[in-house]
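Bug #77: duplicate submission created two jobs. Keeping one. Sequence:
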Amino acid sequence: MNTLRVTNSQFSAAIESLKQLVAFPSVSNTDSPDYSAQYLDDAAHFIESELKELGFDVRCEQINDSPLFVLGSRKTDATRPTILMYGHYDVQPVDRAHWDSDPFKMEEKNGRLYGRGASDDKVGIVVILAALRAFKEAGKEPNFNLKVLFEGEEEFGSNNMGALLKDEGKDLTSDVLIVFDGINKDVDTGTIQNSTRGVLTMTLKVDALTKPTHSGMGCLAPDPAQALAGLIYSLRDPRAIMGFMEDCVYASHEEIRLLDASSRSEEEFKSEHGVVDGGKLRGNPEYSISHRILDEPSISIINMTCGKPNGGNSIQSSAECTVGVRLTAGQDPEKIEHAIRDHLASQPVMWDLPFTFTRTGLSARSWKTDATEPYATKYLQAMGSYYPRTAVMPMGGTIPFLENVFSNMEIFIVGVEDPDTSAHSHNESQSILVFRRAIDSLITFLLK
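Kept job's structure:
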């Protein structure tokens, strides 16, 4: 029996590599004050250098002024299957005022590594690099031919992935694609995810006045915030929007059985996500948490603007919000946008105020695959060697290119995060235990 695992010294080196990668403030959102094309380039070239040390043929490609795509390959044996491994080196913007430490200086505390990108998703890249370094230093070869694809704009929509694949798709053809950008059910449950939710983002704005006016005129002046609140309230239940649910493709009885078997409880979900005492969850209470994530689309208000914090006694000229829609299998973002637009047009607006509804962000379909495919099954078996438990779960987030680009190969997502990660939030962190287990799981899978 082959028992290759990451050694203590190799794991220490992996932590140091992650620290170096986190130090690049590789924010891809061009509207962020932390954005710098140079930081993104520096992160890409760091990864490029690491791959070259591991014997990969590597190149960096740019599409339409995009951050660099890092593409690498290494053939071990032409008769072996080929694995394509994906991760992204770009990160979400930060609000330093809410961080307990510098988000770009990784710190270890209480068994976790804190820093922006320490988990989402720079650790996914380092897991791959560390596993392959363990093979190299042991003088062994994986039982796969190897390809990697790392991008720098996943957090900003993977807008150029489709164009890249038109040029490079043939070179990336593989038997299986593994995405190292998922979340584990908990630190002791190795998890693969076999679905993502689609996404649609729009701005809803109500105009009332040409300039703010004294709130003493509130008996006369129309309030855009109240009018906006009425429109928002009309969006509370997607099932009440004509045409919204009609294309949904629901889970089979077997899929539901698998989901329910490893689903978190309502109380676990409330604890993980900080639901206030007495607060109820959305969705059908007869469905498990995982079943709801897979089968129930949602409409959420992800930010609102009217005036400024601690502003004066004024009625504002306008109010707006960002509407975030998450889609399930079968739903087309274009069709859903039209359904919401038609719904809003049919609603009475307080004081007959005008409003605009504009697509402003990412749009992508959902993606789903069969969790019983052969490579996914083998990966779960590998995880079972290091985690007390394994699970298959749906993913609440979106990886935009999966449905649009990679449709002819087996695909699954591997968990590197856990419920305490706080991805996209302040004080993002990575479990050191999960980090090591993820490396060992990949090593074992590559030996199968």
